[in-house]
Here is the input.
Amino acid sequence: MLRLGLSFLIDQKNMCSILTTVHLPSHIDMSAFRQKLRAKSIIIYEGKGCFKNRVFQVGNIGELSLGDIQFFLKTLGSVLGDFKEALPPSVFAPRLDPILNRINVGVVTSADSA
Here is the structure.
């Protein structure tokens, strides 16, 4: 998520393992962002109180496969890209494909071990 140009609300060393809180870039409308992700079967949670329209939360609950993580990151990158037309390219991180390729390195799936 950092490579997509996002930042976390809490320092990574202090994060819990089941919920990640991420700053929403100021040029993105929370409602539209949530709707676009929901249309791709991804549910995020909005910040409350002073964090409303400033952060979103991603639940990391249950068994997540490498495919689940790749789908989430690819979809998140795509949706973030939908909002970039009004901004200069320097605001956005490099494409997501190299990131997903790095995630795949050294991962053994059950199909590989069979």
